[in-house]
Design brief:
226 residues; 1 helix; mainly beta; Immunoglobulin-like; three-stranded antiparallel β-sheet; 8 strands; five-stranded mixed β-sheet
Length: 226
Amino acid sequence: MKFTSAFAIAASLSVCSAFQPTPFGVQKSTALRARDSNFDLSGNAWKPDSEKMGSTDVGDYFPEGYDPQEVAYNEGMMGSQALLGGNKDGPQLPGMENLGADAIVTGGIETASEIPAGMEFVPSSVPDGEFQMNVAASGSGEELTIEVAPVCMTFEDFYAAFSPQSHPSLSVTPATGRMDRRGGETSPFKIRCDPQGQAGNFEGDLVINLPEDNSKICYKIKVTSF
């Protein structure tokens, strides 16, 4: 009987200890044990190849079988201006890459040598300026040079002539050419009056057509022949 009672008491104590709750605030710790002494616990030590030999992103800049010894990698980096030894970057006009200070250029931009057939020279109701001339009727004529300032944003071909109602003793040269853009150099026009013995007061309207700009410049010319 004593043996049975002792066994029952021991079993009861064992069951109670199995379901006994853990005291509040006490946490169990778990320790990680390294099996290998070389195990690195500081984190991932892997590094990309970019820190060793260059970029890992290899572009397809060169064709298959490209020989880097054939053409230098920096060929053409500075554009055609690099050939001139200057400090300007960017491309030039085709065929002008090797143009130097001592180069001789032939040709260039061509301008019309004659006034197109059918072009009309109609003066504006209000002229852009007025000039006066004094001419000896018995002389060989007089000339007056005027400087016309450019009015267009780009270079423009011009055609100059007096209107049909102008006095026939008046003429102008050049009749064709190219005018500079606004703010550039002026264009000289030489006005000539040859009265051929006729005396009196003559008038004429000089019209400078700029067809590409759809505009014109007009001047009133007044002549006193004595």
